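User: DUF3572 family protein, Devosia marina:
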Amino acid sequence: MPASDRSAPNISTLADMCLGFLAENPEELLGFMQHAGLTPDALRAAIGSDRLQLGLIDYFAANEPILLALCANSGTTPEQFMRAWHRLNQVD
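Assistant: Predicted structure for DUF3572 family protein:
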């Protein structure tokens, strides 16, 4: 594994950080749910799924203000976050 990949958080951890951030910021949570087309019940049912994890990471990667706030609160750098996002979006 390249050194740059080792410094990026794993996908599950990153998604959990994103969900935690949204849970603490109800307006942002509502924005994510509207963007993803999720009802509260659908969101609860999707917790832990690969699809939700990818959606959370994509949403933060495309929204610089909340990405920067997440990184400032979590000790993760935007570069580490984006390396993880890039790994998810590589085409083999």
